Every structure is written in C-alpha cells, then in structure tokens.
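Tutorial handout. Part one gives the primary structure; part two gives the three-dimensional structure as tokens.
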Amino acid sequence: METFKNMHLFVQVAKTSSFRRAAEVLDIPPSTVSRRIAELERDVGLRLFNRSTRRVELTEGGRLYFDNCKRIIEEAELAHQALSELHTQPSGVLRVSMPVDFSVIYLSPVLADFARRYPRIQFDLDLSPNQADLMGEGVDMAIRMGPPKDTRLIARPIAQLKTLLVASPGYVQSHKAPMLPADLRDHDCLRMKDAPWALHHADGRSEVVQVGGTFVANNRGLLQQLALRDQGIAITAHEWVQDDLTAQRLVHVLPDWSPPSAQAYAVTTTRLLPAKVRVFLDCLVEYMSPKLVPQPLG
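Part two.
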C-alpha cells in the first residue's frame, strides 16, 4: 500500500515538474514529498528525477516508470469510480475527439439520442482534423478511421463503411471515363494523401494504381464538394453520397471496382472505462453496427 501511495505521489510530481506544486495538490508538506520520492527511488533501484534549483525533470528510467504508474493510478481510480457509479446514473463531461465528416453524417443522431437517454452527461467534442493525443490531452475517447498506430491504445471496431469512386457528370463528359483502374493515372484524382489507390474487383482481382491530381486534402467532405464541381474523381463512403447519386449530381465511376472499406474505431487508453464512457461506447455499437456494416468484417 505504501508503494502504491508513493507511485501516486510520483505521478503528481512528474505532472507538475515540481515537488512543491505536487505537495500543494496533495496538501502535504514538501519535505514529505521529498522523503517519499527518495523511498520510492530506493525501492525501484533507480533515480527517477534529475533535480536542480530551478526544475525537476524525469530521468530516462523515470519516463518509463511514469507511463506505467500513470496507467495503474488511473485504472485504480476508475475501478473505485465504477463501484460508486453502480447505484447512480452516469454523469460528467465526456470528452471525445472525432473526424469531421464521420461525425456530421453519422454521429449527430447518435449524440441526440444519447443526450436524451443520459441527461446528466455533457459533451466536449473536438472535431479538429488533428488526431488528439489520448495519452496526454485528457480525451476520454476518440473515433478514428483505421486502427491507431499507438499499440498502447484499445481500439474497438464500430463500423465498416463501403466505399466507391465518384465524379460529377460534367467531369465524366469532359474527360474520357476510366474503363480500367490503370486509366486513373490519366485523371485528376482527389486524394486524402499522396498514396496509391488500391482497388478490388468482385471476382477477386486487385490492382494498385499510382494516381495524381491537383488536390490533396485531409477532409473527405471538401474532396466530395470538389468532385461535385467537376474537379476530379474521389473516393468516398457510399452513404455519404447517396443523395448526390440519386439526384445524379455524382455518378459511380468504375462500378466493378471498389476501394477498401473504411473501418471506424472507438479508441480509449484502457479497457476499464468510467460509466459515462462505457455507456457511450455501448450506444455507438448499438446504433451503428446494424446500420453501417453493409458487409462482414475481414
């Protein structure tokens, strides 16, 4: 128990980079902080901080220890919170980072329904194109397209979106429509990044094409608007363009070939979730799985 208490104190010192400020946060004397950190360093057999008259910095071993201690402390606090919430309705501020297009098109009805079911939960939503740092920015959950690169994060698939190639009738009329994937090399392709396009045929064939064009952007909504304005061929999710296809503002290009499905994930830093996060994740799975998984995963 003493080791656990010292770990908690160590995390506070690391967060504040100050023995004095950690003592103020924990309402204990600074001398107690110094003594207990020294005890912890003796226990682990490593110097955890480089100390000077101006600042306190983690050593290399201290940084590694901090990552592990921070998770242990947070999960212990969440375990205690989960027990206390068994008899109460989930409440508090839920901080979620999510992609702009996916949120506007798919999540607005989920959020509205969730708010009615859990009126004591408030949302702080970040729709920035920059992916939030879940480990360091105080974000409870992120919705991401594709699995996270950070292997420390917990990712749960919540939807698989069928994708297709589209262009405006005006663009198709003024350019020779592609008949094969290789023909895309001669077209303006509206891309999320400079990377080859992989396409799959219903008969099992696959082709990878190095495409180019005038526009590269980090927002599919913008690329779709450019496609509507005769600027080229875009990859988009089927449900995002249903209305435009029905109204013939966009047409399906290379209909026998499809880009890979876009996989949406709910990402957290731990499997031990506070009630407000757990019920939101359950709501996402309940609402989105039957509506947004048009084909089996895998």
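Part three, for discussion. The radius of gyration is 25 Å. Residues 6 and 36 are 6 Å apart (CA to CA).
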